[in-house]
Structures are given as C-alpha cells and as structure tokens.
Amino acid sequence: MSDNTIEEPLRSALVTAAAAPHLLVASDYDGVLSPIVSQPEDAVPNPASVAAIESAAALPDTSAAVVSGRALTDLSLRSGLPVDGPVTLIGSHGTESSTGFITEITDGHRALLDRIITEFSSVAADYPGVRVEPKPISVALHVRNASPAAADAALNRARAGAASWDGVEATEGKAVIELAVIATSKGHALDALRARTGADVVLYLGDDVTDEKAFAHLGDSDVSIKVGDGATIARHRIPDTDTVATVLDFLVTLRQSS
Ligand SMILES: O=P(O)(O)OC[C@H]1O[C@H](O[C@H]2O[C@H](CO)[C@@H](O)[C@H](O)[C@H]2O)[C@H](O)[C@@H](O)[C@@H]1O
C-alpha cells in the first residue's frame, strides 16, 4: 500500500495531525509494529515502522512512544529500541517505564503473582500448546498453539480460577488471557505522556482489547487507528502492519515538510 492509497477520512486526519504545534505519535507493539506470530519471542517489527517512529522522535516538537503489554525489557529487546532512547517505551500495559512502575510492587503483589504462575503452570500442563508467560506485574496464558478445544478449556479454567481471585485484573486479548496484580491502563499511560510532552495532538495505533483503553482517552483532535478486525471505538481502521508502516511514513514525511 503506497501513501496515495491511504483513504479519506484518515488521510485528512493525518494531514491535520502533521500540522499540530506538538504531536505525539504512539503505537502498540504486537499486531501493529510487528505482525502476530505463533511465539511471543519471534515477534519481529516491520523495520519501516520502527524507522518512521524513530524519525518522528527526531523531529522538532514531536514525541514518539511505544506502549505495550510486554515487559519493558522484552519490548526493548524485540523492538530494537533502547529503554532510555528518544522513543519512549512503556511496558506492562502502561504501568512500566524506565523510571519503574506507576505503583509500588509489594511483597503481597509478588506473592499473588507467584500463585497465578503456579496455577497457570498447572493449567498449561494439562493442555498441549498452552504456555505461560510470566511478566513483572502480570502473567499471560497463551493458547494460540493449542487445538480449539484445548484453548477453550484452558481459558475457561483460567476464567473460573485465578481470574476470580481478589486483587487480580483479568484481560483477554489475542489467544491469551492475562492476569495483572496492579491496575493497568494504556489510557492513563497516554494521559501521562500527553502531559509530559505537552502534545496538542496524539496519534495512537492499536489492534487489541487493551488498546481500547488507549482509544478511550483520545479526544476529537486526536487520531485513533485500529489495526485489523474486531470491535473498536477508534475512529479509523487499517487492515494490517504493512499499512501501519505506510501511515507512519506518510505522517512523518508530511511533518518533515511542514
Ligand atoms: O500490547 P501489545 O504490544 O500488543 O502486547 C500484547 C501481548 O503481545 C504478545 O502476545 C501477543 O503476540 C504474540 C506474538 O505475535 C502472539 O503469539 C500472542 O498470541 C499474542 O497474544 C505478548 O506475548 C504479551 O506479553 C503481550 O501482552
């Protein structure tokens, strides 16, 4: 998809955003910068998207960020972007930055996390293809590589079990259920980034359920873009990660010449 195939009304929204006094360009990682793949450690970003985000961060009066459900160090490793570089990285669904977590992680949180890991490990052991991804404030139970029946059974056990425990926040995403021990919100993360950078306009690209919390914090002057299928409150939709690269490159080129 070349930039001349970006259709209205997204095209006009990008032209307007590119002229903002201060622009924040922010994106999700999995399913947006990187295509969805079978194993989380194999998620490689589209180099053109990363280059465009880096170019945005280098422009005057322009900030750039990647806001992901991944742990911060993992996000940095997969994206190739440094934790403390020009592109701000926010991990753990909006709760983790280079300065730490938004909430103090207590021994109680850690004990609950350990209980969830134990429970999810026992679920995963019963269903081939199901795996556990422990993270700093949450645990993901991935069912992408399980049979449909095994995936359903594993998700139902997680929902009826650990997801119902006190102090647990459950989120379901793409072939995954994730349980966090502190409240998470990519929306609050975007609010904080907007306040810190002084951005007049925020553009955010996301593909999954947790990105809806980010879209919900965007206003009429902002640009919300859903990548792929599924219900969304975003104002714009594009089909895939290749189009993400086209959109980001178009936006950066416009801003470079404005
Ligand atoms: O907020 P994101 O950057 O979109 O991260 C969301 C989760 O992404 C990863 O899982 C998803 O992507 C995997 C790789 O494509 C895929 O195999 C899996 O089925 C998806 O759920 C990551 O592993 C999670 O930790 C993130 O929370």
UniProtKB/TrEMBL annotation:
Name the Pfam families on file.
Trehalose_PPase (PF02358)
Pathway named in the protein's UniProt entry: Glycan biosynthesis; trehalose biosynthesis
Q: Which InterPro entries match?
A: HAD-like_sf, HAD_sf, OTSB-like, Trehalose_PPase
Reactions catalysed: alpha,alpha-trehalose 6-phosphate + H2O = alpha,alpha-trehalose + phosphate
Q: What's an example GO BP annotation here?
A: trehalose biosynthetic process
Q: Which GO terms describe its molecular function?
A: metal ion binding; trehalose-phosphatase activity
Cross-referenced SUPFAM superfamilies, in alphabetical order? HAD-like
Q: Which domain of life is it from?
A: Bacteria
Which cofactors does this protein require?
Answer: Mg(2+)
Keyword Metal-binding in annotation: yes
> Is-annotated flag, keyword Endoplasmic reticulum?
no
Swiss-Prot/TrEMBL keywords: Hydrolase, Magnesium, Metal-binding
- EC identifiers of the protein: 3.1.3.12
What family does the entry list? Answer: Belongs to the trehalose phosphatase family.
| Role played | Removes the phosphate from trehalose 6-phosphate to produce free trehalose.
NCBIfam families the record matches: T6PP
Protein's UniProt name: Trehalose 6-phosphate phosphatase
Organism name: Gordonia amarae NBRC 15530
Phylogenetic placement of the source organism: Bacteria, Bacillati, Actinomycetota, Actinomycetes, Mycobacteriales
